Amino acid sequence: RLLPAPLKDAVEVSMWRKCYTMPEVNAALSKIQLVGYSQKIELFGAVQVTPLSSGYALGSSNWIIQSHYEKVSYVSGSSLLTTHPQPMDQTSLKNSDVLILTGLTQIPTANPDGMVGEFCSNLAMTVRNGGNVLVPCYPSGVIYDLLECLYQYIDSAGLSNVPFYFISPVANSSLEFSQIFAEWLCHNKQTKVYLPEPPFPHAELIQTNKLKHYPSIHGDFSNDFKQPCVVFTGHPSLRFGDVVHFMELWGKSSLNTVIFTEPDFSYLDALAPYQPLAMKCVYCPIDTRLNFIQVSKLLKEVQPLHVVCPEQYTQPPPTQSHRTDLMIDCQPPPMSYRRAEVLTLPYKRRYEKIEIMPEVS
């Protein structure tokens, strides 16, 4: 309904066109070059780019783009919290001529630790009252942290006989890959890999049958399905994936609860097509990306000559215009940009490196 025409008129799914075939998707992916943290890549002999750990998710990166005389840092979704990925590399960002800053937290007033606690207590309360819990989620990212928190919480809350189901076409590979790629993990998880022990507790949950994963709701899942239970499945927008089935199955009972943890979508918009809804809705957005206090501290430490950021970060949120703490404040003031705007970055080149034949020189 909110999409531009003609998309908003194409309600009939049968009218939708397939954009890409699987071979086309694979052909596009085959052009991607995989790199490791701190690996230097030459681009056409003009600039050198280097990915750095951003501390936000497995493999998430910030980038240094460097010529012979200039250094530009690109800081996207980053986190200073201690979770499962490798910690953020801040020292490499120092001495930047320009620091491009984006991907800050979408919910600057919510504390991730408090939200995780609220998530666990709402989940336990629903299950104790005989209801089911639905968690619309992505197949990787925050789900690893949620499973880790639940692992520590299950026994103390008396939930050890409640089944947890993770349903996604990539559920199995997501859980396995998170255990294999040790180079993306924080130090204490890396050391477990070499012991060898599984770095994530979800491996133990799977072994003890507390966590079961399925590619879809058809087949094995329908035979094993027991209630009350907790289901992790996608998509957080509630518009596609197996989550749609569970919303329709459990929506009519007030015993059940849906818990939203992803801040990417307005949960009220997501729920709109399912109204009237009897099931309880809890919003516990967990966003571990940098907030404005952390950004101020980071900028003081790395001291770039210029900061470039989206226009939204240079003013308080429209709903809280008095909160001047919810904006970027640095000297000199940041350069802001809007969507699709072309910027000229504020530095002048004084030198160029060239190669010349001795005879010519």
CATH class of the largest domain: Alpha Beta
Count helical runs: 10
The biggest beta sheet reads:
7 strands, mixed
Shape: globular
How would you describe this protein?
The chain is globular. It has 361 residues and is α/β, with parallel strands linked by helices. It folds into two domains: 24-107 and 289-337, Metallo-beta-lactamase, Chain A; 112-283, Rossmann fold (3-Layer(aba) Sandwich). Helix content is 25%, strand content 16%. The chain has helices at residues 22-29, 112-128, 142-153, 171-180, 187-193, 202-207, 220-224, 243-250, 267-271, 292-302; strands at 41-43, 47-53, 61-66, 71-75, 98-101, 133-136, 164-167, 211-214, 230-233, 257-260, 280-283, 306-310, 335-337. A hairpin with a 7-residue loop joins β2 (47-53) and β3. The strands form two sheets. Strands 1-2-3-4-5-12-13 form a seven-stranded mixed β-sheet, with no helix packed on it.
Give me some keywords for this one.
alpha/beta, seven-stranded mixed beta sheet, nucleus, Metallo-beta-lactamase, Chain A, Rossmann fold, RibonucZ/Hydroxyglut_hydro, Integrator complex subunit 9, 361 residues
